[in-house]
Design a protein that fits this description.
With 541 residues, the protein is of the alpha/beta class. The protein folds into three domains: 21-212, Rossmann fold; 221-414, Rossmann fold, CATH 3.40.50; 427-528, GMP Synthetase, Chain A, domain 3, CATH 3.30.300. It has helices at residues 3-10, 35-44, 58-62, 102-110, 201-212, 221-236, 249-262, 280-291, 302-309, 315-340, 355-361, 397-407, 411-414, 434-453, 506-519; strands at residues 25-29, 49-53, 68-71, 97-100, 114-130, 148-161, 167-171, 176-181, 186-189, 240-244, 266-272, 296-300, 346-350, 387-389, 462-476, 479-492, 500-501, 523-528. Strands 2-1-3-4-9-8-7-5-6 form a nine-stranded mixed β-sheet, with helices on both faces. It has a five-stranded parallel β-sheet with strand order 12-11-10-13-14, sandwiched between helices. Strands 15, 16, 17 and 18 form a four-stranded mixed β-sheet that branches. Helix 14 (434-453) runs antiparallel to helix 15 (506-519).
Amino acid sequence: MAEGAAKQVAERGQGGRMKAELGGVVVLDFGGQYTQLIARRIREQQVFSAVLPCTAPVEEIQRFEPAGIVLSGGPSSVYDSDAPKCDPKVLALGIPVLGICYGMQWITHTLGGKVEKAERREYGRAQLKVDCAGGPESSPLFAGAPSALRIWNSHGDHVRALPAGFRALGHTENAVAAMEDCKRKIYATQFHVEVKHTDRGTELLRNFLFNVCKAEPKWSGAAFIEETVEAIRTKVGSKRAICALSGGVDSTVAAVLVHRAMGDRLTNIFVNTGLLRKNEFETTLEMLRDRLKLHVIGVDASDRFLAQLKGITDPEEKRRRIGREFIAVFAEQAQKLQAGEAHGEIAYLVQGTLYPDVIESVSVKGPSATIKTHHNVGGLPEEMPFALIEPLRDLFKDEVRRIGKELGLPSEVLVKHPFPGPGLAVRLLGEVSRTHLVTLREADAIVVEEIRKAGLYEKVWQAFAVLLPIRSVGVMGDFRTYGLTVAVRVVESDDAMTADWVKLPADVLERISTRIVNEVPGVTRVVYDVSSKPPGTIEWE
């Protein structure tokens, strides 16, 4: 991601911290696979959590006025030459700290203890013996816990010697599993309290939040709405904004939130990229205008988007070109609006960016890998004519749906399946052509229609078709055919960070396959995607 765009994205567009954020918990990410889950578990207790890279300056952490700090797990060894580190001052702020897995090892190593490669690695379930002196009630972290717990481990190193001032709170067969220094308010577990596989993990996390940090459970949808609206109002002043509106739950919630703050100074723009689903441009415009009463300009830019994609097969290049073209369209529309009205500079672009978009697009939260570029994050051009307002940037999809419900959005918006910003361009593998887009739209419409008929639409996360650059031999009416292949993808998920393929009833699969082959010209084969995320992603590109 270009540095200029990265800086603008990182600003979040909210103009200072919200009240519900202050007094929350900052999670410092060392690249762990469960970092986002830690943040979710904290918010489930109605305590705000923000994820920052482990390299975040202490001053940035302190701006949140956090009640506590959590150090995440990570894939490295503390002795690696490129091992992730955070500023040791974090441990001297007087703010309670909880280290998890690598976080515990980093605390140990930084404060003079000893970490070694374990003779026997611990992955998966293990038995924890709670053995702190005086019983578990003497540690605020283990208050109310039994003397033994089933826990979930994922580590190859372990703590061999504790730093000065610490005492062990529990052991597994071959490792110190928890420790504390009550005077410095530093606690740590080698196991993962955030996963459901750990017995009473939520209770241990609650103990840290409320017994140790004295955090207040003031994070809620209503508080988020009120304070986000106030923060946006303060930030934008008398200036105007446009919103990149797609009709999906993310951008619609963002639009309604910002509309509450700005009123008629917000103009929503819905772009027909030529990459939308069947009839989506017309039906979405009608819903946004008639049902939600939003001021929406519909722009048919399908020819220019398809021209940008001509001859392009690399998925990352597709995303970059689409991202750039979106910004170009928005800039042109902003100029037209400003030319037609005498007051108010259009200084901001509103986007419905979510946390999974950010973590997959660019490594801003720690030493994690970039999975793919999202058109609204990593696909932005270096020079931007707008500052960004991204009120949902720290949230997950299910949290956004709850916010949308608080805002009174209709259920048809709240339950709508996610649709990628680049649209069908990343569900049509290889070069994008008008002919293949027609084929994919028809196949996709059949998948969604049959999922709805089966009563499964609101029970699954996503259901869609993918057109593969594969031809295979078939037989139709006693004649040989050499047609296209459609893959059907149906997944279940909570937040899009992980996903499992749905074991659809055989009769539903059969109907989908039969209809696609019979009703979509040129398709002779239908396959079902049984990949989870990881190792795959939900989308194919």
